Amino acid sequence: MVSPRGSPVPHRQDRTDPFQQRGAPSPRSHDDLTLWPGHTADMSFRVPGPGLGKMKLDSAQSSLDQEEAEEAEDRQLLEPAAWRAYMERRTALREFLTSDLSPHLLRRHHGRMELLQKCSFHIEILPKHLALGDQNPLVLPSTMLQLIDPWKFQRMKKVGTAQTKIQLLLLGDLLEQLDRGRAELGALLESPDPRPFLAGWGLVARRLAELSAVMDSFLAMMVPGRLHMKHRLVSDIGATKIPHIRLMLSTKMPVMFDRKGSVAHQDWASLRWFVTIQPAAPEQFELRFKLLDPRTQQESTQCGTIPVAACAFDIHNLLPNRSYRFTVKRAESYTLVYEPWRDSLTLQTRPGPPEGPSPSRLGKPGLPLTTLSER
User: What does the DSSP assignment read for 61-123?
Assistant: First the structure.
């Protein structure tokens, strides 16, 4: 068949999928089909009567005919070569938004970012060059830490704190750029007129390259990097050869309360917490508690900080039928540079008789807590 312009009209089977013409992603699963009105993933439905079934089939057919008519109308706006270029570029843009910059991927990166903001950042000391099989005890991090000038190390901790804050701010900015970029390109994909799309394709291609670079920067910055030093931290000690060292920023997963395992009783509370990735060495924690809305001066003393060497603890001599806020975090360590977040939990003790025990001793651990903390 030949069109009025003398160019052959493509066969019906070469026409673009109606899903693609309307700017929607091609359905790849049952869930995708159910998201779009007028389409159903289950074609084996029961028809209660011939009239209703014929009406549904006629409605579906009219919808397809309308989309094909709109496609033909859009095709008449462009020459065949321009139309093919439009469809190819539109498909490339859709694939980028559904794979490299999909909503699922962005939600995952937002979750990783939220987790990173809750982590604690530490300085890790490593030898710069270590020969294979070198048994020199001076290259061990614990030994090298003793040789580092304390004043210089404190300065490096301040540098590490600043570098961590900048890194988190940059990560948040990069993630916002990815969100904005996807919204802009998605709106362009929904544009009904193909001519502005083709005219501005140069800017679109440049935007795709920019967003790809932003994604690469985001992924690279998600891993804490090397801490830059201007001066040597270890001075020469006699004839002993001290290896050069490098400082790296490392992260530790946040400490979080076990909200199912933490329970408040009448005058005491049993608290449990955990770390997603258990460290190789035991850790020290700092547990704080505070009575909310104290009514007397004596009740204002219902607060304190307790060092704990386990992942469970019992706090006794609490007031009945009152609300307490508990917080937990890692204890301050020599290598800690930044820990902006700590988990908090509010529990209310059970009601009891008006004559409650006077607070005398706080923070008595139960006997089985050592076993529980080793899980």
Answer: HHHHHHHHHHHHHHHTTS-HHHHHHHHHHHHHHHHIIIIIT-HHHHHHHHHHHHHHHHSEEEE
Other Cβ atoms closer than 10 A to 37: 7
Judge contact between 91 and 221, C-beta under 8 A.
no
Q: How long is the chain?
A: 375
Q: Select from 125, 339, 109 the least CA-distant residue to 220.
A: 109
Handedness of CA 207, 213, 217, 219 (dihedral sign): positive
Q: What percent of the chain has pLDDT over 70?
A: 64
Contact by Cβ (8 Å): 267, 316: yes
d(CA 236, CA 147): 10
Q: What is the pLDDT of residues 130-169, one digit of tens each?
A: 544 444 444 556 666 777 778 888 888 998 999 999 999 9
Which of 292, 267, 297, 296 has its CA nearest to residue 359? Answer: 267
- Judge whether 269 and 318 are in contact, CB under 8 Å: yes
| Residue (of 73, 67, 85, 76) closest to 18 by Cα position | 67
The Cα-based distances of 166 to 123, 124, 155, 221, 252 in angstroms read 16, 19, 17, 11, 18
Q: pLDDT tens digit string along 57-74?
A: 455 555 555 555 555 555
Say if residues 106 and 179 touch (Cβ distance below 8 Å).
yes
Q: CA 255 to CA 169: how far, in whole Å?
A: 22
Query: What is the rounded distance in angstroms from the CA atom of residue 243 to the CA atom of residue 143?
Result: 12
Question: Nearest Cα to 90, choosing from 176, 192, 228, 158?
Answer: 192
Encoded amino acid at 17, one letter? D
Q: Among 352, 332, 136, which Cα is nearest to 242's?
A: 136
Q: What is the spatial distance between Cα 347 and Cα 267, in angstroms, rounded to a whole number?
A: 12
Alpha helices by DSSP H, listed for 137-246, are 141-147, 150-189, 194-199, 201-221
pTM of the model: 0.66
